[in-house]
TrEMBL record:
GO terms for biological process: methylation; RNA processing. InterPro entries: Alpha/beta_knot_MTases (IPR029028), rRNA_Methyltransferase (IPR051259), SpoU_MeTrfase (IPR001537), tRNA_m1G_MTases_N (IPR029026). Keywords: Methyltransferase, Transferase. This is TrmH family RNA methyltransferase. It holds the Pfam family SpoU_methylase. The keyword Transferase applies. One of its GO terms (molecular function) is RNA binding.
Length: 251
């Protein structure tokens, strides 16, 4: 049997860190390829699986190897309370591009135009997974697979297509760009093939994204408030899509 600690060290730089039981549970449910998974207490981890995730318990049983605490501490920067960690294979750009380009589309794509905050990006990926969105595209320099984004996404990067693209590479579909100056979202039905675009935390929508937009849409807000947080804006917009006829896939 391959030494899991050695295998981890060989693969770590090119892999996605799944830090904690819940990240591994989600990634496994959405069929991530997991070459190595470790824990300092197999019995406790499998008991947690039996309680919270019986659907993937057998898979976790086959994946998890128990290692000493001292070895685990050398693999992760901060030990997770569940003492579980794993490495997953990042889906290729080609795989993501294929998923984003597939038509007819049954759920929107979320675009974050030059996001700056890694926590916001993770929260948006978790939302997109929950609503069954087709994918999350970022423009600009932030890597949507950065370890902090993956931590914020709770392992749900594998439940939706996550890729960085240029504005001129956006997937097909009408672009609804969210901006406080747009038309009130409450009067609109967002189509399943919508591309829902959100601006940067600092400066809002870029000129390039505005030029690409078919519709400018606003979320209701009293006049004295300038804007909402990026991730909460995505939450309200996806909720509006689902509440006006869109169905989270898998439901
Ligand atoms: C924190 S806001 C950006 C604030 C930025 N200072 C600006 O000038 O727009 C981030 C993004 O959330 C979305 N957003 C926030 N509040 C919104 C609202 N009331 N209506 C529509 N979109 C909103 C927009 O896409 C916005 O670009």
């Amino acid at each position: 049997m391959t030494d899991p600690v050695r295998l981890w060290r060989q693969l770590a730089d090119a892999s996605v860190l799944l830090d904690g039981f819940h990240a591994l549970k989600h990634a496994t449910r959405f069929r991530a390829e997991v070459p190595v998974a470790v824990t300092t207490d197999r019995e406790a981890a499998l008991a947690l699986a039996g309680e919270l995730a019986p659907d993937v318990r057998d898979t976790l049983d086959a994946l998890l190897t128990e290692i000493p605490e001292a070895a685990y501490a050398t693999l992760v920067a901060r030990p997770h309370p569940t003492s579980v960690a794993a490495l997953a294979v990042r889906p290729s750009r080609e795989t993501n591009l294929r998923a984003l380009a597939r038509t007819p589309r049954t759920a929107p794509v979320v675009v974050l135009d030059n996001p700056r905050n890694l926590g916001n990006a993770g929260a948006v990926i978790r939302l997109a997974a929950g609503f069954g969105a087709t994918g999350v595209v970022t423009t600009g320099t932030l890597d949507p697979w950065h370890p902090t984004v993956v931590r914020g996404g709770a392992g749900l990067h594998f439940a939706t297509a996550v890729e960085r693209l240029d504005v001129d590479e956006l997937p097909p579909g009408p672009v609804f760009a969210l901006d406080p100056e747009g038309d009130d979202i409450r009067g609109l039905k967002l189509p399943d093939d919508a591309v829902l675009a959100f601006g940067s935390e600092r400066s809002g929508l870029s000129a390039a994204l505005r030029a690409r937009a078919d519709h400018l849409v606003s979320l209701p807000m009293r006049p004295q408030v300038s804007s909402y947080n990026l991730a909460t804006s995505v939450a309200m917009t996806l909720f509006h899509w689902s509440a006006t006829g869109g169905a989270p896939t898998g439901s």
